[in-house]
Design a protein that fits this description.
The structure holds two protein chains of two kinds.
Chain A: H1 17-46, H2 59-84, H3 88-117, E1 119-124, E2 129-137, E3 141-149, E4 168-173, E5 177-182, H4 189-216, H5 222-225, H6 227-257
Antiparallel strand pairs in A: 1-2, 1-5, 2-3, 3-4
Chain B: H1 15-47, H2 54-76, H3 84-106
The chains are: A alpha+beta, B mainly alpha.
Chain lengths: 258, 118
């Protein structure tokens, strides 16, 4: 059975069906991310004074990822424009770039996640706090590259710290440790919402890259039999990809800079 | 197939006109791309400027983000010249999104800082 209106616009909407479908899907995505942004606002406003983290994320790395995603947006739209101009090889080139940029984004994000999962806050039996990255772990001791924390509040606003503490290798006996917790989503509400928002966004990047990868590879055979329909598929996948970029445009300042 | 080979079945006398039309679009896309790069650098730069209080920094960063998002939506997603149906869908989305944010702002009066306890 032929699927109707894959190329020709439906008389009542003036659009081919997939375009209406993707915009309805994106509308639901706006509400999904909107709910999470709303949660972020509530958590931030509800946090006690001085206990909302600032400067916990690496701004140059985040900026780099923003530039990667923006560049992938232009390659996506150029891929579609190339098909409109009947330049299939150019389409292949631009979409190969998009896939590489998507992979680069995920790799950079993984590096950031790894940094957080190897970062520990250690509370000793005597009440002192140590903060740093795990270097070695044995059954009787751990070694971190970090510093002793004078005031727990100084861990929260890293922008406010005038003289950043010098990091050194510190060996701690496990018997001296009261609590040792990595900077995972369970550490505090900031990291919980950070991992939720960026994790969901990363899943969208991976999903989008898989679709674009299919259309670049085996799916591109359609160009030879039904070029207009194939071009429409590229437009639809592109709309999703631009939405993913659009979400990141808000995530970056909200999580990294403010 | 070479980069400029016309696909079988899709040739038409209108193709040069189409190419010219899309070349114009491509120039526009590149302009938007440069604007987005510039906007990103401005966002990072502005975050290091102490405007007096954090609220102003938040407002500036969100204003730049909205401008960048508008460029992506209008030009890359072609919302600047879309059909009424799409505007209708987005109108409903905007209504519910603003409603959600309104509910969030409304709930501020009930946050732990402002709650009166006896």
């Amino acid at each position: 059975m032929e699927i109707p209106y894959t190329v020709q616009p439906r008389p009542d909407t003036g659009l081919y069906n997939a375009k209406v479908g993707i915009w309805l899907f994106l509308a639901s995505e706006v509400m999904l991310f909107g709910a999470l942004f709303s949660s972020y606002i509530l958590l931030r406003v509800g946090a006690p004074e001085g206990y909302w983290p600032h400067g916990w994320l690496n701004v140059p790395v985040g900026t780099c990822n923003t530039l990667v995603l923006i560049t992938s947006s232009i390659t996506t739209v150029m891929a579609w424009a190339s098909l409109k101009m009947n330049q299939f090889n150019r389409f292949k080139f631009y979409h190969a770039c998009t896939i590489c940029l998507a992979l680069a984004f995920v790799c950079i994000k993984s590096y950031e996640y790894h940094d957080k999962f190897t970062h520990y806050e250690i509370i000793l039996n005597n009440g002192h706090i140590l903060d740093g990255h795990l270097r070695e772990s044995t059954p009787d001791h751990v070694v971190i590259s970090g510093h002793a924390v004078e005031d727990p509040k100084e861990l929260y606003d890293l922008h406010a710290v005038k003289n950043p503490p010098k990091h050194e290798e510190i060996t701690v006996l496990r018997s001296d440790i009261k609590k040792m917790e990595r900077y995972g989503p369970w550490h505090n509400t900031y990291l919980a919402i950070y991992f939720t928002l960026t994790g969901l966004h990363a899943l969208h990047v991976i999903g989008g890259a898989l679709v674009i990868g299919f259309l670049w590879g085996p799916g591109s055979k359609l160009w030879h039999t039904d070029p207009e329909r194939f071009t429409n598929r590229i437009e639809i996948s592109g709309l999703f990809w631009h939405f993913v970029d659009l979400v990141w445009i808000f995530l970056f300042p909200v999580l990294y800079l403010l | 197939m070479s980069a400029h080979t016309t696909h079988a079945g899709s040739t038409s006398t209108a193709q040069p006109h189409v190419d010219e039309h899309f070349s114009h679009h491509v120039r526009r896309y590149l302009f938007v791309f440069y604007a987005l790069l510039f906007g990103t650098l401005i966002t990072v730069g502005a975050s290091y400027i102490p405007f007096g209080n954090r609220e102003i920094n938040i407002a500036v960063a969100l204003a730049i983000a909205i401008a960048k998002a508008s460029l992506v939506a209008c030009y890359f997603m072609h919302l600047i010249s879309e059909r009424k149906m799409i505007y209708g869908i987005l109108g409903f989305t905007a209504f519910f999104f603003i409603g959600l944010m309104f509910l969030t702002l409304w709930s501020f009066s009930d946050n732990p800082h402002n709650t009166i306890t006896h």
